[in-house]
Fold:
Amino acid sequence: MQKSLFVAGLDYSITSTDLQELFAAHGTVTSAKVITDKFTSQSKGFGFVDMESQADAENCIKALNNTTYKNRSLVVKEKEDKPRTNGNSGGGYRSNSQNRSW
Structure:
């Protein structure tokens, strides 16, 4: 069963390919992605790696968590699932006729 890992503390020059190669030394990687800013395409310093199995994920955590890569201290842990919402985040526009200034 595939297992997803969260990786923080990445140097901003690291690419998804670099991330995949780093983790491939410790198990079978099915995908790796460095998260980037959607406007600047600059790395945000974290990413996600999908490992083929739970055992591969555990090997990577043991081997890479709290280590230094490109002068940055890495944090590697299992990805936590986001809590699901009902789609109503409350951030949308809501007209309130009593507060209109026109």
Q: What stands out?
A: The radius of gyration is 19 Å. The chain has two helices and six strands. The first helix runs from residue 16 to 24. The chain has a mean pLDDT of 88.
